[in-house]
Amino acid sequence: MPLLHISASPRDTLSHSRKIGQLMVNRLCAETTLEVTRRDLALTPPPWPDARFTEASLCPAEQRTDQHRRNLEVSESLIAELEASDVLVIDSPMHNFTVPATFKAWIDLVVRPNRTFRGTPAGKVGLLADRPVVLIAASGGPVGDRPPAQTDFLTPYVRYVLATIGLTDLSTIRLDSLLRGPEAVDRSEKAAMAQIDGIAAHIRDRLVRQAVAAKAPAEL
Predict the structure, then answer these.
(1) Into which CATH architecture does domain 2-215 fall?
(2) Cβ-contact 29, 3 below 8 angstroms
């Protein structure tokens, strides 16, 4: 079973989100048969959606030319990678209150009309099968509802946009105040690591239920 691990921080080994994300992945792999597919958005940034991509994405599938299909190749590759995964782990910093540009580019390439969602009179409906998603979000300052804390636009946005394509089983781990000194970092990381056990248990149990259901004989 594939686990897709997406990282967005440009800080490499200095990244707190990458550190906790890797601990989450390691824990999941230790308790399940998941195998990791890695997508590093900082090391290999996805291309910005341009006019050619937009035209091809909005063109009905039956009317697309070979050039349209070429313009969608990166998008199709990223969507296929996501579709093949049984679990998704995303670790990302908060940049200017929301997702980094490279993460937004990935979102824009995988959230496509009539491919990963469709419009209905009642609103957008996701076309991907649901699966467990873990979001690890890190910020340098405090996050909360009252000053001096900053507003978290990242978490609700990611929750909403993933639900749009059908992914609603989202667990979140928040790291904040990471530029407020070693004690704040230690406190935030310990709180994050305390969440890993519960999230891993939830995902393990869901995968077990799915495996049992897949092996159950069809009703006559």
Answers:
(1) 3-Layer(aba) Sandwich (3.40)
(2) yes
